[in-house]
Amino acid sequence: MTRPSEDKQPHDHIPKPSSSSLSFWSSSLNLVLFLVIPLVLFLLLVSIFVPDPSSLSPFSSNFPWTFRHLLPHSFPSSSSRIQESTSTVNGSSSIFNESSTDSSFVSNGSISDAFTEKETVQLVPKHNESEEIDVTKSSAKRDHVKRYSKLEKVEVKLAKARSSIKQAALVRNFTSIHQDPDYVPHGLIYRNPNAFHRSYLEMEKLFKIYVYPEGEPPIFHNGPCRSIYSSEGRFIHELEKGKFYTTHDPDEALVYFLPFSVVMLVHFLYEPQIAFNTDAIGRTVADYIDVISTKYPYWNRSLGGDHFMLSCHDWGPRVSSYVPNLYDKSIRVLCNANTSEGFNPAKDASFPEINLLTGEVEGLLGGPSPSRRSILAFFAGRLHGYIRFLLLNEWKHKQDPDVQVFDQLPKGVSYMTKLKNSRFCLCPSGYEVASPRIVEAIYAECVPVLISDNYVPPFSDVLNWNAFSVQIAVKDIPNIKKILMGISQRQYLRMQMRVKQVQRHFVVNATPKRYDVFHMINHSIWLRRLNIHVQDFDH
């Protein structure tokens, strides 16, 4: 019998299966039912509950899940992390950024061990033996990852200090909770005693200043230690002695001091025949910045942000304007702390103007008790600016025994005696906002009365000036007596007691003592350095 042609339809001829055929299909059916179908179901379940096999690659961010919890926050893939660490050391990127410095590491208290070799290696998954051997054998690469620049190490310490100060600021006690053998800040003279104390202690541990050696006296590395500008000279002198805060290693410094004296620049370079022409002074400062920015990497690294200048001369702000980054970015420590003339309290520090005729404070400190002070308010000074004009014009000729205002004291009358016999001492601005009378009043334990516009008092980020001084608006000069008479005896006694307490922060000591004016100026600079984050992209 011939087979049916292949072009016939299937239903034309259906042969009956033989017994052997039935046996074959029966076993096949069993195979499908008992082997294939369970296998398919198993694969289906695996595909649902297990990630794509490609996700198990060491280059996948999903491998393995437990590594996500080794550090406080999620990280990118393992290989990219190692790349980031290596490139950081090479200077092509930075470990730090403005957000992570304080939040990711500081808030979790892991600054000291956040960048250790151990953690970096833990984050490399052991995918196979060859990869594990590569990680183990590449000791040079691990050493490279461990080497962070000195600047990065400094910034880690600063981040930890910032965190410590922030935590201390949460304690709103009137007395610091930190122990101190010399002095524990307390009372309403401070905005936050605990935060200030913590910050001061951190400064003592970490603060380092590098003084550029370029330049020669008298214009550089020098300043007057007697006169109305004495605070400038005394500060420069103490830094030059090198007993406090200074370092000879610029790589470990937190800030860099530009040791030019505006007072000396004016004395030697100003040409009085060309009124108010400061170009020669400005060019000298610009040339100096050019020298140190060419010789050292630190100015260009921060655009001057971690550098500071210091001036008690009225022309300090004007001189700094000849170098835009000095004016806009550097820390300017100025007696002329006038916000209407560009003084920025976030980066600039107010410098107390102290007139030391002999260079010492001997005989200036202290005074009679409040009950022996017979004068309500006192001022003596020449006509110097429009505020003093208004004050003298209003009170000089009244000859009021309570409010005694003079442009020149009568012969034989002692200025210091008047200060120490007054309850309130008037401190009006002159041509510029600063006045040495503020510190004179504090020395004489006389409550200072600040009469100024746009003035930021010294150390006002730490001190609560409302607690120990009176601030009178220029427009209220005619109402001085009314305002001061309105202060109750009880309130005056409190304020006078606080003046005595705050005095320690303004005293000039032959050898600086903790918490005195030298250390407080440094603390103001320290706080401004805490406000910035410097990154080194060329390391």
UniProtKB/TrEMBL annotation:
A GO molecular function held by the record: glycosyltransferase activity
Entry GO CC: Golgi membrane
Entries under InterPro entries matching the protein: Exostosin (IPR004263), Exostosin_GT47 (IPR040911)
Cellular compartments annotated: Golgi apparatus membrane
Segments crossing the lipid bilayer: 31-50
Topological category with respect to the lipid bilayer: Single-pass type II membrane protein
Keyword Membrane: yes
Domain spans labelled Exostosin GT47: 204-485
Keywords for this protein: Glycosyltransferase, Golgi apparatus, Membrane, Signal-anchor, Transferase, Transmembrane, Transmembrane helix
PANTHER family given in the database record: EXOSTOSIN GT47 DOMAIN-CONTAINING PROTEIN, EXOSTOSIN HEPARAN SULFATE GLYCOSYLTRANSFERASE -RELATED
Family, as annotated: Belongs to the glycosyltransferase 47 family.
Protein name: Exostosin-like protein
Organism of this sequence: Corchorus capsularis
